[in-house]
Amino acid sequence: MILDISFIGILIGSIMASSVPLILAASGELITERSGVLNLGVEGMMIIGAISGFALMVITDNLFVAIIGSMLSGVIISLIFGFLTQSLLTNHVATGLALTIFGIGLSAMLGKNFVGIPGKDFPILFESLKESIPFFGPILFGHSIILYFAFVLPFLTSYFLKKTKLGLIVRAVGDSPTSASNQGINVILVRYCCILYGGSMCGLAGAYLSLIYTPQWIENMTAGRGWIALALVVFATWSPIKVLIGALIFGGITIMQLHMQAVGLRIPVQFLSALPYLMTIIVLVVISRDSRKIKLNTPTSLAKIFYKEK
Amino acid sequence: MYKNFLRYLTSVIFLLGFSASASAEFKVGFVYVGPTGDHGWTYQHHEGRNAVEAAGIKTTYVESVPEGADAERVIRQLAQSGHDLIFTTSFGYMDPTNKVAKEFPNVKFEHATGYKREHSNVSTYSARFYEGRTLLGHIAGKMTKTNTIGYIASFPIPEVIRGINAMTLAAQKVNPNIKTKIVWVFTWYDPGKEAEAAQALIDQGADIIMQHTDSTAPVQTAEKAGVWSFGQASDMQRFAPKSILTSIIDDWAPYYVERAIAARDGTWGQQDTWHGLNEGMVAMAPYNSAMGSDLVKEVEQLQKDLASGKAHSFTGPIYDQKGKLLVAEGKVADDGMLAGMSVYVKGVEGDIPK
Fold first, then answer.
1. In this model, does residue B20 exceed pLDDT 60?
2. At B273, is the secondary structure helix, strand, or coil?
């Protein structure tokens, strides 16, 4: 059964769907970190995005509003982080952790009235093609628009960082904020923008969970995916394409191990459960071995507080 | 790691709040493993707590307390802050509950689904969920077209294994060709992972999805895929109106009220409670009309027989996977055997994770 070609297509389709929140959150966090800011609040921003998206969907009955609203909520909550770390110069690590605790608590409070309400069907594109083409159908078609966006995003991110002037500015700010500042770049403004962008992507990642993947609101529904996204960014050595590969490996092995269990393979289940974490780290470490490239991608001023000398 | 740490941190901050307000008033504390909004296991315990409040007794609760060392600290805090009776509502709280009970002989403890009562102030209670599983198995055996039942399991503890066995035995009885495929997710509550497990089982040919985890994600996944499913712990019908055939409902409220009043009035004594369909601690949500009226009648009859004791979920002959006789023909499994169940019966595929 497992060797059936159309079955493998279905499998790849579900792997892609499960990687989406990781790709979105990690891509957003990557930009934030490349500008030299370490925001450990990914989990908190995701969960706020999840509840905002779901609540707006219930209230307005408009999925477009819900998606935009979830991104905005991510922006707003990351603005708190930005204000604290950039304007009040607080410690990035402590502030990020506080943001996660705050986000989880706030989302539970906001969500009290939205528990137990079933979600709405999210429109799926090219559904007929999914069924009619074996293998490629379930891979390429029958997904939500957010999934397609998530799979383009790492390439856009890579292009942005490598080929555009703005990308160069972000990297400059992350590598040497003092030099960038001396060049007349407003370091704080750039970092604010990167933080807010990261927040919006985390909000979207959360909304993907509450509106599309498991359409409902339940407390703590992100269940640690924000932390995995954070780890992906580091193990992918701040390269957007490797983030994509890492997210797919993680999602892939998570799904594969469930299938291996269902098939009844006699491999210890605990080992299978640990496999996604193990394999993702191993693969990312192996493909990122080139220390010259690591140096090139690592934002050297990461998590260091910058203040302009007067 | 981080998550547990954060949960612990929030629990402690929360608890510091009420340790300051310790007083002589009779108070009942609840420790939950998940959030009250899970719409499954913890939700039902919380409903029980609401009933205790409605009976005029003051209560407090701490939610999302991880099993293990953190639980011990939370339970101890509750005991220190003037709670007279503490319900610890998850299997993993077993050792912490007993440990704290030793330190606080005047506080009474009620531990759900465990079997250790090491001190006279610890009672245990559980529901015979397996009776509900027998009904689900019967329905599943009749409703499946692919003869494959997908089962999302949480942790390899007797309660979960008992459910798998009860379901499989009942399904085999009405359909000898059925196969039970099991996926262990090693969590009580992770909607994303539960949905992925359900999808994997469906992709592997299961047309019936059953869960021993707490979120509504599996039934929603089943609804999307157009296969049958069963709700767990509370009535999940509205999350998957077409797909859900019925739900097993845990009704803790009468027990909680009874025990809280007993503790307040000084009549509380140690006991081990194991109630089922008969006492109403296990109840069934309305059956889906898609089952057809004949099957509904059949199942309702079986439900009555299980409640009255005329039928039993574990009636011999029962063999384990290797073919060893567990329960002889004409006998039923005793409670001791049920409580410690740690092997699969014949017909279940795979191994129990050690």
1. no
2. strand
What confidence score (pLDDT) does residue B6 get? Answer: 56
Give helix A240-263 / helix A145-163 axis angle, nearest 10°: 150
Q: Do residue B191 and residue A209 have CB atoms under 8 angstroms apart?
A: yes
How far apart are the CA of A65 and the nearest CA of chain B, in angstroms?
A: 23
The answer to whether residue A124 neighbours chain B at the CB level (below 8 Å) is: no
User: Can you give the CATH number for the domain in which B181 is found?
Assistant: 3.40.50.2300
A105: helix, strand or coil:
helix
For residues B255 and B273, the answer to whether their CB atoms sit within 8 Å is yes
Residues B321 and B212 placed together within one structural domain of the fold = yes
Residue B347 falls within a domain, yes or no? no
Q: What is the end-to-end Cα distance of chain B in Å, rounded? A: 22
Answer whether A263 touches B (CB < 8 Å).
Answer: yes
> Model ipTM?
0.78
Instruction: For chain B, give the number of residues.
Output: 354
Strand, helix or coil for residue A135 = coil
Check CB contact under 8 Å for B220 and A215.
yes
Chain A residues whose beta carbon lies within 8 Å of the beta carbon of residue B183: 258, 261-262
Domain membership flag for residue B348: no
The answer to whether the Cβ–Cβ distance between A14 and B203 falls below 8 Å is: yes
Predicted local distance difference test score (pLDDT) of residue A1: 47
- How far apart (Å, rounded) are the C-alpha atoms in residues A65 and B232? 33
Mean pLDDT, residues B113-122? 92
Interchain proximity B35–A108, CB inside 8 Å? yes
Tell me if B37 and A111 make a contact (CB, 8 A cut-off): yes
Asked if the structure places residue B60 within a domain, the reply is yes
Rounded to the nearest angstrom, the minimum Cα separation between A258 and chain B is 6
Joined tokens for residue B136: 């689900």
Does one domain contain both B227 and B310? yes
Q: What CA–CA distances, in Å, run from B106 to B20, B75, B80, B121, B257?
A: 20, 14, 11, 8, 20
CB neighbour class for A133 (10 Å; exposed up to 12, middle 13-18, buried from 19): middle
DSSP reduced 3-state for B123: strand
Residue B320 is classified by DSSP as: B
For testing the chain B interface, which of A40, A209, A220, A275 should be mutated: the one with the most B CBs within 10 Å?
A: A220
Confidence bin at B13 (pLDDT 50/70/90) = low
> For residue B138, is it within any domain?
yes
Identify the domain containing residue B230 by its residue range: 130-242+284-339
Pair type for strands B318-319 and B325-327: antiparallel
Residues 33-92 of A with CB under 8 A from B: 43
pLDDT digits (tens, 9 = 90+) for A251-274: 988 888 888 888 877 777 778 778
Pairing mode of beta strands B244-250, B282-284: antiparallel
Cross-chain Cβ contact A108/B201 below 8 Å: no
Instruction: List residues bridging with B352 in a β-sheet.
Output: none
Shortest alpha-carbon distance between residue B269 and chain A (Å):
36
For the whole model, what pTM was predicted?
0.82
Are A254 and B196 inside 8 Å of each other by CB? yes
| B184 strand-pairing partners | B153
Considering its fold, how many domains does chain B have in total? 2
Tokens of B329: 């023909």
Could you tell me which residues come within 8 angstroms of residue A254 by beta carbon, excluding any fewer than 6 positions away? A18, A276, B193, B196
Largest Cα–Cα distance in chain A? 69
pLDDT tens by residue, A76-100: 999 999 999 999 999 999 999 999 9
If asked whether residues B141 and B198 sit together in one domain, one would say yes
Tell me: do B301 and B163 sit in the same domain: yes
